[in-house]
Amino acid sequence: MHMDLGIEEIEKKALEEIAGADDEAALKDISVKFIGRKGLVTGFLRNISSLPNEQRPMAGKRANEVKKKIESTIADAIEKLAAVISEADSIDVSLPGRPGFRGSIHPLTVVNREICEIFVRQGFEIAEGPEVETDYYNFEALNFPDDHPARDMQDTFFVSEDTLLRTHTSPLQIRLMEKQEPPVRAIMPGRVFRCDSDITHTPMFHQVEGLLVGEDVTFGDLKGMLTSFAKEMFGEDKSLRFRPSFFPFTEPSAEVDISCVMCGGKGCRICSGTGWLEILGSGMVHPALFENVGYDTDKYRGFAFGMGVERIAMLKYGIDDIRRFFENDFRFLRQF
Ligand code: DAH
Questions:
Q1: From the CA of 323, how far away is ligand 1's center (Å)?
Q2: Fewer CB within 10 Å, N- or C-terminus of the chain?
Q3: Which amino acid residue places its CA nearest to atom 8 of ligand 1?
């Protein structure tokens, strides 16, 4: 068997095995296999006498070279292993460990829950609905005329001619009223989408819609409800201002401002010197909506409101760039 392999092949095989060995025991085995008393190189040397005379000196010389080469390669390999082991040994186990990362709740989730909880405590139920909407629920049933600018391709992500990503949570008003008779008292959180992007707008953001329908609902009820909400959310010392506005689905409509959370109303950079910050849109439900869902317009009145969760969170925590919410930077997120 020993003579089956030439000395060059023995060398090649030995060096390959040494390169593949990953501990000292394996290297010792290789040493025995090749240069031990019954090893391949040893056997080769012993058989040199059977070679023709003129080949013997050359074969002997090569075999001794190979033996030395194997010896020194194994020695180097053992030394290298020892170095790796002592490096591992030098790890200071008395150092304090790295603390595990503890997750925290995303600020938008915190604020969204807080908004919903405030209204749930007032007897509102929570309702949800689809993010991909039809033109009917997003616009038509909400009394948007055909040529309303909000229907423009610039603002709305259309999925097809008749389907789109909802641009607000207001379609949930219609979906809910179609399903149930008054009284209705619901809070409706969800993602909304608009073709818009800068430091105060992201293409996807969150809104919370509110709807209350009953027999004797007045604008005074709306004011009372939103005032107590704002005080719970931003503090007792805050006041609200209702500014006349326009939405197709409410009449009358009001935009609601809160006294500036930074300066308390004196006027600063955040409120552009006005002392007020806009926080939501609201109004008395337009009778056209009741007609669209088959409610008796003589009998029922309602109020509705809608607010942006990012905007509320930015004001509450003093965040100046809406994109922070979506960058997933731990340094930002872990503060909440
Ligand atoms: N849907 C409106 C928007 O996205 C917000 C809004 C305004 C909702 C007035 C309402 C409302 O329910 O009554 O800008």
A1: 22
A2: N
A3: 306
